[in-house]
């Protein structure tokens, strides 16, 4: 199925970081099995109880900082270098807010749901690096307003980098989804778009995702095994 793809679109989700010790959202033990996303991951939740929401993300940021990339993250970074050396490219689009792809050495990572390691000022819109807890009041390093929020995309908000993602989907010749449940849009719709263009699609997951039927092929198992094997 791989043939000679030169422009691979990879979509990753929480499953790729599971073996690094970071929790997923919807499978067994997942965050949204224990916690209500409507009280933690919406703009309304942040308006109603900012301390609770900041606490949730402070905890997640600390966990991400303590985690290490695993073999799946590293295999993607190596594949990006190898493809680039052959004149192709690997477009890495992640729904994850951790920085494990970057720390594994991936040259470019598109975080469509934002990042834990940056903060956004709701007053001036600037984005600044943030590796320590966000507290209130916490001043924006650019405008000084006490208006920092986690730079993540909550339900009802517009995902980031959609133009770049569209362009990459339009030129890809292979689409691969890794460790994502296919439950959240627009990311869950990308496989359908790839199929409509007639390019091969494959999912690498521990178990069939919600949209498994939309893929031509699948390999099931832990990402630390399936991703290096798939890209070898
Ligand atoms: C392993 C493994 C191992 C485990 N190895 N695998 C169309 C239809 C219906 C609804 C909508 C729609 N379009 C939009 C919506 C509304 C909404 C939505 O999708 N709702 C659904 C729940 C129905 N979408 C939005 O609101 C989005 N915005 C939007 O649509 O704006 C309008 C617009 C967009 C575009 C064009 C025009 C208009 C925003 C969504 C924001 C999602 N935010 C979160 C939180 C981010 C910050 C944070 O991290 O806290 O993003 S929610 C959460 O879900 C997080 C994730 O990125 C996202 C996806 O989760 P993911 O990664 O798939 O994780 P899981 O847990 O679901 O799955 C893990 C998988 O790994 C499982 O399959 C396991 O089997 C597997 N696995 N261990 C390999 N070792």
Automatic annotation (TrEMBL):
Cofactor(s) needed by this chain: Zn(2+)
Source domain of life: Bacteria
EC identifiers of the protein: 2.3.1.286
InterPro entries: DHS-like_NAD/FAD-binding_dom, NAD-dep_sirtuin_deacylases, Sirtuin, Sirtuin_cat_small_dom_sf, Sirtuin_class_III, Ssirtuin_cat_dom
Record key words, sorted: Cytoplasm, Metal-binding, NAD, Transferase, Zinc
Residues annotated as binding substrate: 57, 60
Residues binding NAD(+), per UniProt: 13-32, 95-98, 179-181, 205-207, 223
Domain Deacetylase sirtuin-type residue range list: 1-232
Signal peptide: none
Active site: 113
Family: Belongs to the sirtuin family. Class III subfamily.
Protein purpose: NAD-dependent lysine deacetylase and desuccinylase that specifically removes acetyl and succinyl groups on target proteins. Modulates the activities of several proteins which are inactive in their acylated form.
Protein name: NAD-dependent protein deacylase
Species of provenance: Methylobacterium hispanicum
Gene expressing this chain: cobB_2
